[in-house]
Amino acid sequence: MQLHQLRYFAAVADTRHFTRAAEREHVAQPSLSQQIKALERELGTELFHRARGHVALTDAGQTLLPLARRILADADTARREVQEVARLRRGRVRLGATPSLCVGLVPQLLRTFHDRYPGVELHITEGGSQDLVRELGVGALDLALVIAPLASRGPALVARELFREDLVVVSAPDGPGPAGAELRVADLRTMPMIMFRHGYDLRELTLGACRSAGFEPELAVEGGEMDAVLAMVGVGLGVAVVPRTAADRSGLHVTPFAAPGLHRTVSVAHRGDVSPPRAARELQRLLYEATGADPR
């Protein structure tokens, strides 16, 4: 099984067309078809249903596709690792982070990194922790800033704790909201809530805290991203539980939780079976410096 065979296979799976796949890979269509047939012979099964004007993956092809993508991603990482040897003059870092961290910690971190290594490409993916863990697992990210504990699927992940952050309740400045200087989780029982979409760690953390307090929260709206949730809180549709960093930038009314409070732990994670590229390791080192975390 050759890398170029897997690349041709993935191209046909993406385009559902042998000629367009050959054009994308800059190879003659007969050569591409021959290589895929050779791959099918080696595997002992067909990977595509072929019909005039229509190409579809077989069950075997569906099974191979995510594995092929992971192998190709790992091979790409290996090539870049070699290219980065010359003092990080070239390279790429693919960093994932939750939306609140993208407007808090990440911008200054990337500014510092870019000033030191201007030739290294920076790619940022914004999403919930569960989404980012999946992206790490398939090799689409080098590092991710996620919320512990991790629900890893696929390859084992290595995570190092960076810091703990307080969670608070935000409400509209001129609307109904928490009456006191602080509140308990149980006080949320009587407040309509704006809830994040599935895949956000804040959703699971908030729901878990409410259930531990013995109730299911009343959801006025659910399914939003960070900006949408804050905007809906701002027009008085309900309250939301968000990190302190996001709350302080929102212009909304902020109410902390009474002791012991609600917190989240921010960690930096990468795949355990593949060492991050050199540029990613340097970004990780800068993360430890910026947050005062122990790299051990």
UniProtKB/TrEMBL annotation:
Residues 1-58 form the HTH lysR-type domain. InterPro entries: LysR_HTH_N (IPR000847), LysR_subst-bd (IPR005119), WH-like_DNA-bd_sf (IPR036388), WH_DNA-bd_sf (IPR036390). Pfam families: HTH_1, LysR_substrate. Keywords: DNA-binding, Transcription, Transcription regulation. Belongs to the LysR transcriptional regulatory family. PANTHER family: LYSR SUBSTRATE-BINDING, TRANSCRIPTIONAL DUAL REGULATOR HCAR-RELATED. This is LysR family transcriptional regulator.
